[in-house]
Design goal:
Layout lengths: L1 E8 L4 E18 L7 E18 L1 E3 L2 E3 L1
Antiparallel strand pairs: 1-2, 2-3, 4-5
Amino acid sequence: MVTLNARQLLGDATSLGVNAFVRTLDAEQFNVSLISANTRSFTHVASAGTTVQLDHDTRVFAAPTT
């Protein structure tokens, strides 16, 4: 699994964040059966994704919020 996180300030109160990931999984399953033939299976899964987030700090009634 590989993950990338990055954040860039765009001004005094604004920032842009990016998160991306790539993941692979290889699995083997072996089932023993007393009644029929044994079975073996192989699985390969690959997935990827990303998010983008824009943050702006502001004040509501003089209380800081994000």
